[in-house]
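User: Before I run my own analysis I want an independent prediction to cross-check against. Here's the chain; please return only the structure tokens and, at the end, one sentence I can use as a sanity check.
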Amino acid sequence: MRPSFPRLAALVLLVGVGCSHTHIERVTVPPQVDLTHYTAVALIDFSSPANRGQLPSYATHQFLQRVLEAQPNARIMQLGTLQQALASVGKSQLDADAIRAIGQKNGAQAVFAGTLELTDAKPTVSVANFAHNVGVSADVNANLAATLYDAGNGTIVWTSSAAAHDSAGGVSLNGGDVGVGVEGTDNAYTRMIQKTTWSIADPFRAHVVKQRVEDAQ
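Assistant: Structure tokens:
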């Protein structure tokens, strides 16, 4: 009995698959955002809605370090604080006109700006095992956001944000035994800044992925 056409087609397909050969190659995927296309990029220090001392400046330097580690050939100039950058072009807010003016004044084709939001330590109480185990921790949160603007027209080229949570210490009561862990909030803030800057800088990194390809015939 002759095989039906569907069976014959399936047989041919199986034979073809059995004869084909593939292998795994490592392929480099370029960064999502390539800053080397710009002659120069301006970086405004990250700002914070509350007075956080040197922490916004620290976040700016951490972000700059992450980006330059990913793209050593990028040309980035620091402009100081947001207030300084705006005052240098006679502007009061960071809008499209201000971005264009900042780019023109500094010879930059793109402008980075960002914000750092940190919460004050808030006690959190946890109770377990019918109040035999009681814990009090001081929790803090961080949210870091960064935006890259086209200095030619003030439009947004890229934007991203990252959040982190940490603990600044606490007290625990376990069956009558008391344990105390005390740590300044600055240490917790520092860890969260390091974590969030690493996260939002990922689009500037090239990545190596594995890809299955067919062997040359």
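Sanity check: The chain is about 30% helix and 35% strand.
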